[in-house]
Amino acid sequence: MKIIIAGVGEVGMYLAKMLATEHHQIVVIDTQEDRLEDVSTHFDVLTVQGSATSFEKLKEAGVKNADLFVAVTHELEVNITACILSKKLGAKRTIARIDNREYLLPINKAQFIALGIDSLVYPQMLAAREIVNLLSQTGTSEVFNFSGGSLSLFVLKLDENAPVINKTLQEAATIDNELIYRAVAISRDGQTIIPRGNDVFLPNDIVYVITNQKGVSKMMKYSGQKKLDTHNIMILGGSRIGRRTAITLQESSNVKLIEFDKEKCFQLADELPRAMIINGDGRNIDLLREEGVDKMDVFVAVTGDSETNILTCIQAKRLGVQKTIAAVENTDYINLAENLGIDAMINKKLISASYIMRFTVNADVPSFVCLTGSDAEVLEFVVRPGAKITKASLKEVNFPKEAIIGGVIRDKKGFIARGNTHVMANDRVVVFALPSIIHRIERFFN
């Protein structure tokens, strides 16, 4: 595909990185020369310096032949205008980054489609949604649902006392006769392993597991994890992510939100009548103690500073909080934060990239997940009639070894894939894969 990315900020840079490894033709537009030099030095992309709202620059980028135009600058108006112009000039599909929830209302989304903007991505709302999703499964560091939860991907850190420790995948499978969950990847020492039957589970492995709702409790038991109550929640930071998270949680939980900016606290108090808003510096240990951090079930740090989020989560953990979640924008810090004991990380770049990346695959992909602790990706494919994957059982179709099929959703019911599973047209198939082979995987589902 030919893909044009407008804006080389955090999201744009990460998109360029992801797409450049998947053999797409990438063109990047930005007004800042130093940003363009940085992205062209690290990745195989073409660059155009100038505004993405310029007819001249869009034509120079070859917009009339673009399969996808993505505007992810920090300026809402630039993103919207650039997408409208690009569609008029020939781009097949356009996506705009926004920062206004009002635009996502169905009646307003229809207006954007009429203007030529095919999809809108709101990173802060996606991040808040992921935090709420995490709190529904508190023993995990990440959870992603497919087809409304018919299948889910759980990310678990193995406790040293977990029943599966020092067992191979084959041995672990014999613990329970009913195969209702499957390990599709292991992250160990920064490396991603697509596991086979003789691979062994070790303490502190990060394991990616596909299961249906029936298998959640057994999966948690065998990994040494347990579900925690999330009645009392403390949020540090009244950012858009913090605010959206609190709005959702205040109806079902006791929420305390700490914000340094006094004026913002008054605004938050109006928006969050059921939450307690505290004006103060969350880095102050005495303040955390005074506000009862030791009585919290969950501590969520979503300030605009990754270092503050990591350090306050570490402190909250030491003061007795069972689960901590930190917004970490620097991807280099993610493994460090994991090793320091933080339970879950939220990264807007990865979440936004996950949303956008599904439009770059030449197949029907309702869900695409870029994982925080792994260099692999998870895709949900809809199988088209006559697709190669339907011609034989999974063990006979020569599926790439760098990928693994975790589960299948058929008639809204999810089940774990086995070697003798025969995939059918219109099934939804969840695949865990390394980025370099996604273009090979597509061919099995078209």
TrEMBL record:
SUPFAM superfamilies: NAD(P)-binding Rossmann-fold domains (SSF51735), TrkA C-terminal domain-like (SSF116726). One of its GO terms (cellular component) is plasma membrane. Residues 141-225, 366-446 form the RCK C-terminal domain. It holds the Pfam family TrkA_N. InterPro entries: K_uptake_TrkA, NAD(P)-bd_dom_sf, RCK_C, RCK_C_sf, RCK_N, Trk_Ktr_HKT_K-transport. One of its GO terms (molecular function) is potassium ion transmembrane transporter activity. Coiled coil: none annotated. The keyword Transport applies. Keywords: Ion transport, NAD, Potassium, Potassium transport, Transport. Residues 1-121, 230-346 form the RCK N-terminal domain. The keyword Ion transport applies. It comes from the Bacteria. This is Trk system potassium uptake protein TrkA. It comes from Salinivirga cyanobacteriivorans.
